[in-house]
Amino acid sequence: MKDTNLPSDSRPWKIKQLVFFHVLIFIALWSLFTPGTKIFWETIDIAFFKLVNSTLRDNPNWQLFWAFANHKTADWIEDFCVLGFFFAYVIQGRKGMRLRRVAELLFSVLYIAVIIYCVNKTLFREYLEIPRLSPTLTVENSVHLSEEIPWLSIKDDSVKSFPGDHGTTALLFAASFSYFAGRRLGILACLYALFLCLPRLITGAHWLSDVIVGSGSITLLFLGWAFCTPMGEWCIQQLERMLLGIAALRKKIFAVRKEPI
Fold it and tell me: How far is CA 63 from the centre of its chain?
């Protein structure tokens, strides 16, 4: 088990892992966008989409379930569930380690939020546009959930489906949480992340490769730089010091209030 009490300067760069992640990212992106190899991803993408999307056909209850899972309100519920994972991780720690775990939670949440906003929402949507039609705009006779349930706002198509925003959030959460929490809770987090990816895949807003290659590459890149370098540990230590300062200030305020007039 990793020693989380080591100072940042005693955490060397994990060069081999960092290089491996970058090589893996290059291979994944090259395989998706090179004409000679992208046919394999196209075959997998179409087969997977037809398999999962066909389950919606003539199945009102299943349609309703995935429609609600694909609605914006579900995003808030899913976020609360993510916080529930971190809450379980915090309370399972020893009393002296809980502040450290809260700092790890804050780092993960803030880091994921910055990546989603700066990379997915800004870089890929405004500056580095990669035109890619989603499955429902490409595959004939696909089930359009927005047409089956028109009274509910559902995202089931996109002209720029690469990479998947929900997939990036889910994979970043699963990877960072597993790094801190270990195998037992990590497996549960990975299963939950898989569920988070399914609504956009089943309804056809994203291809499977949008998640595996697109979201997976972003996850490997940024978590590699967070945990294979001293950066993540340094940020967590700063957050922990800030929390300690807030706790000390709070004690002083309560002490002043309790003093007799």
Answer: 25
Please give the Cα distance from 138 to 132 (Å, whole number): 10
The whole-angstrom separation of Cα 255 and Cα 17 is: 49
Are 88 and 180 in contact, with CB atoms under 8 Å apart?
A: no
Domains in the chain: how many in total?
Answer: 1
Q: Is residue 4 part of a domain?
A: no
The model's pLDDT over 138-155, given as tens digits with 9 standing for 90+, comes to: 888 888 888 888 888 888
Domain carrying residue 110: 14-258
Report the pLDDT value the prediction gives residue 251, as an integer from 0 to 100.
66
pLDDT-above-90 percentage for the chain? 29
User: What CATH number does the domain containing 165 carry?
Assistant: 1.20.144
Burial of 196 (0-12, 13-18, 19+ CB in 10 A): buried
Which residues lie closer than 8 Å to 28 by C-beta, 6 or more apart? 212, 213, 216, 217
